[in-house]
């Protein structure tokens, strides 16, 4: 674990009693909160000038205190006093000038796209942050902390250290809480909830108190608060498909701030470096105060569907992923020690350009997959995405879908996390299906000892795919089912139809791209597996920088590329692992399924002929859009691409579709051909969710 920045040098001569300092910090927090409230209500030039004047005076006062502490002398005192008087006089001028314009409104005056009100808000936020930084710095030094030796780097280290210290962090958290209280009636409910969570997360800053117990538990508590917040944000997005610009900008910024914050915590734990974390606190403050000062409620603001903003969704997914990634990595450090990362054998980036690029790529993927294949990362992602799947169970109509989604959560917990990481981490690779859950490379090198378990895995999984379709893997056991089927992520399946690349993979037929990709993937898998096997029996000596070829390829496909493709949902659609042919394991099961018993059937083809909505074609998460034609022509849909998620079954307003697999096949043989009975029509709220892409609350829109 990293240590807090150690300052060295001379002690502060006049260390003040801590009680007085905390009293001062609390008063300043209250004054700043009041100023922020005033700033949020500013309308006229005069109001704006007064608020800016007060903020400038505050900054100037704390700059002076810091300056004096570094160079305490009568001369410094005199110079600082004079400087404050001069700046006060200068900044009084705008106030006097603004009086001449009476009640002229700030948003009446604009330059380019920026109104004076916008410029005022930016300046107010910048000044509040500057005041806080210098206040934290001043209080840290005044509390008797050891001053940095020399200037330049020393003062910089002190600044970074003071931003990460409790003087800054706790004062800020208090100030944020007071502001939130003062402005409780003005903020939209969702913004209020998210900024409220920000206060807690700020409070649980691990660098704040120089104690390993605090660092550990504040990291845990901060992570829990962040996970709850992320779940809330995603559910909010699911329920609100249209957002005003202010809210959508705020959400993406706060996710960015948390991405930087978790990266900062990881960097601090691993290298003892506080800079990134300190930066994240400043970004978080800027986001917070911008939201507080600028939020005027969404009344009158134009709403825009986020499903029509791929770049925005991309930013949301990327920042969320970065935050989760570093959160998992930070907890890994606590769970396994820094050696978990520092012992990864990295290849020196040297030699020819190609060699250096290959080494850099290798090192990057090793580090990346060390996190994404770690237990804590999977647990965090699992809790977050699992909560969204739980929410989806609420809306699912068919018992079969509810049960399947329950199995998705259970399978993830048991099959992806509990068994391999906590029960038998070393022996798991010898157990068919569990140990080799994703095919070649899952559990390491392909050695003779594990060959039978691997073949057994293909056999068991293939058999299940033959009887039940590839849904046993892609819609239940694969971690992707959890990652793609929660409420908000499922709503992103609209990108399958709107994105340029996603459209290439529509319909039940396999595109030319799919055929190329899947061929390449299988060629690479087989070649790597052959090398891995020959290597393990000592016939050849081929590894990739010392790593087994199969294992590395597995890490590349499932622990790296898979997440990249997930983040790219707005450009390639959901379940791109299945639609593009990127997943060798998936394509194997899809192929078996194609020749197996699984298919979708309709009870009555004529209903499809007259069906006015053709809803089944609009909801498929893998982009199968030609169900109606297939149902009308053959009464069924049998496609290698169908992974049996069943959204079409839920969406059909006539409840016409049903799953046909080994169970229906046996029923037919035992009781004759009989489709399942219809169970009433779909609730309108469910139809809105599944078809129009609007959340349940938007029924009135
Ligand atoms: S295609 Fe592969 S990664 Fe995607 S859901 Fe299926 S098995 Fe999982
Ligand atoms: S929505 Fe139902 S009735 Fe309409 S075409 Fe699809 S399966 Fe047929």
Please outline what is shown here.
With 701 residues, this protein is mainly α. Helices cover 68% and strands 3% of the residues. It has helices spanning 18-41, 45-70, 74-100, 116-142, 153-164, 166-182, 189-203, 212-239, 245-271, 275-294, 310-336, 339-342, 353-372, 375-395, 399-423, 448-468, 471-477, 479-485, 487-491, 495-498, 500-504, 512-536, 549-567, 569-572, 576-579, 584-594, 605-610, 616-619, 627-634, 647-651, 662-671, 684-692; strands at residues 110-111, 114-115, 242-244, 303-305, 599-602, 636-637, 657-660.
Entry keywords:
single chain; 701 residues; mainly alpha; three-stranded antiparallel sheet; two-stranded antiparallel ribbon; 7 strands; globular; disordered N terminus; disordered C terminus; binds iron/sulfur cluster
- Compute the number of strand runs: 7
Q: For the terminal residues, how far apart are their CA atoms?
A: 52 Å
Strand % is under 5%
Percent of residues in helical segments?
Answer: 55-70%
Number of domains as seen in the coordinates:
3
Q: What can be said about the biggest beta sheet?
A: 3 strands, antiparallel
- What is the rounded Rg? 30 Å
- Unreliable stretches: 1-14, 148-152, 679-701
């Amino acid at each position: 674990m990293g240590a807090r920045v150690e300052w060295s040098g001379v002690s502060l001569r006049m260390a003040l009693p801590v009680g007085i300092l905390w009293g001062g910090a609390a008063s300043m927090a209250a004054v700043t909160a009041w100023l922020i409230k005033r700033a949020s209500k500013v309308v006229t030039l005069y109001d704006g000038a007064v608020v800016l004047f007060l903020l400038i005076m505050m900054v100037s006062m704390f700059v002076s205190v810091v300056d004096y502490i570094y160079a305490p002398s009568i001369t410094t005192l005199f110079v600082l006093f004079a400087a404050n008087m001069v700046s006060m006089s200068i900044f009084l001028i705008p106030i006097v000038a603004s009086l001449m314009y009476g009640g002229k409104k700030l948003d009446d005056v604009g330059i380019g796209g920026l109104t004076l009100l916008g410029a005022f808000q930016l300046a107010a936020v910048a000044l509040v942050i500057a005041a806080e930084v210098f206040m934290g710095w001043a209080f840290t030094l005044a509390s008797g902390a050891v001053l940095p030796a020399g200037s330049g780097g020393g003062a910089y280290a002190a600044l970074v250290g003071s931003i990460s210290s409790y003087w800054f962090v706790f004062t800020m958290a208090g100030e944020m809480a007071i502001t939130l209280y003062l402005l409780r009636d003005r903020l939209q409910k969702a913004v209020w909830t998210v900024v409220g969570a920000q206060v807690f997360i700020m409070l649980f800053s691990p660098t704040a108190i120089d104690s390993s117990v605090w660092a550990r538990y504040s990291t845990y508590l901060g992570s829990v608060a962040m996970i709850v917040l992320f779940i809330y944000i995603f559910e909010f997005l699911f329920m609100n498909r249209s957002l005003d610009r202010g809210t959508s900008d705020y959400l993406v910024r706060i996710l960015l701030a948390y991405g930087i914050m978790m990266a900062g915590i990881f960097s601090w734990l691993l290298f003892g470096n506080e800079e990134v974390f300190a930066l994240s606190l400043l970004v978080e403050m800027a986001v917070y105060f911008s939201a507080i000062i600028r939020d005027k409620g969404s009344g009158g603001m134009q709403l825009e569907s986020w499903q029509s903003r791929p770049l925005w969704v991309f930013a949301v997914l990327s920042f969320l992923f970065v935050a989760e990634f570093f959160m998992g990595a930070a907890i890994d450090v606590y769970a396994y020690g820094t050696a978990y990362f520092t012992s990864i054998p990295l290849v020196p980036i040297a030699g020819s350009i190609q060699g250096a690029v290959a080494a850099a790529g290798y090192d990057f993927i090793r580090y990346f997959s060390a996190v994404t294949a770690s237990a804590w990362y999977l647990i965090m992602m699992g809790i977050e995405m699992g909560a969204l799947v739980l929410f989806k169970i609420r809306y699912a109509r068919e018992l079969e879908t509810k049960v399947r989604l329950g199995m998705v959560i259970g399978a993830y917990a048991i099959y992806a996390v509990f068994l391999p990481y906590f029960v038998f981490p070393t022996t798991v690779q010898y157990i068919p299906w569990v140990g080799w859950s994703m095919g070649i490379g899952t559990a390491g090198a392909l050695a003779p000892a594990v060959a039978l378990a691997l073949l057994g895995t293909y056999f068991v999984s293939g058999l299940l795919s033959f009887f039940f379709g590839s849904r046993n893997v892609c819609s239940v056991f694969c971690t992707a089912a959890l990652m793609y089927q929660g409420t908000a992520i499922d709503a992103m399946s609209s990108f399958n139809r709107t994105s340029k690349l996603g459209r290439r993979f529509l319909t039940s037929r396999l595109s030319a791209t799919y055929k190329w990709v899947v061929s390449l993937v299988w060629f690479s898998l087989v070649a790597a597996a052959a090398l891995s096997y020959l290597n393990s029996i000592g016939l050849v000596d081929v590894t990739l920088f010392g790593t087994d070829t199969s294992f590395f390829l597995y890490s590349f496909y499932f622990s790296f590329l898979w997440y990249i493709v997930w983040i790219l949902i707005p450009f390639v659609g959901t379940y791109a692992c299945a639609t593009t042919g990127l997943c060798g394991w998936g394509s194997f099961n899809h192929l078996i399924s194609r020749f197996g018993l699984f298919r979708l059937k309709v009870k009555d083809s004529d209903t499809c002929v007259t069906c006015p909505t053709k809803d089944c074609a609009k909801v498929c998460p893998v982009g199968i859009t030609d169900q109606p034609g297939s149902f009308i022509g053959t009464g069924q849909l049998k496609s290698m691409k169908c992974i049996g998620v069943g959204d079409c079954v839920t969406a059909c307003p006539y409840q016409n579709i049903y799953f046909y697999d080994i169970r229906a096949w046996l029923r037919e043989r035992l009781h004759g051909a009989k489709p399942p009975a219809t169970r009433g029509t779909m609730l309108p709220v469910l139809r809105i969710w599944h078809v129009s892409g609007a959340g349940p609350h938007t029924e009135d829109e």
